[in-house]
Amino acid sequence: MLTFGAFAGGNVTLGWDLYTNDVTVDTIKxxxxxxxxxxxxxxxxxxxxxxxxxxxxxxxxxxxxxxxYWTFCATAYNSVNGLxxxxxxxxxxxxLVPVAPSNFKVLTVLVK
Length: 112
Prior knowledge:
Blueprint: E1 2-8, E2 11-16, E3 27-34, E4 48-54, E5 59-62, E6 68-78, E7 83-84, E8 91-96
Antiparallel strand pairs: 1-2, 2-5, 3-4, 3-6, 6-7, 6-8
């Protein structure tokens, strides 16, 4: 299961359960695509792979995303035989909104 840990300022931290169903799985691939529900066809067409990480890792931060709707998915991958799980069961969509910088100040000017 893919979940959000946090998101702010163009960075999204994703988390997932440790993959233990198949000991031959050695990699988790993280895909991202603009929009919502983009992996319904069972393929990652139109998506960008943003990371490949060891199957023993359970989180990853995706950086430099712009505001708007994004869909993420995680797949289990076996690098020995090139088999990859379907992206349709491990995806989520979210809207990223701009975050004001911590040093942001509001200036009010009164004109008479």
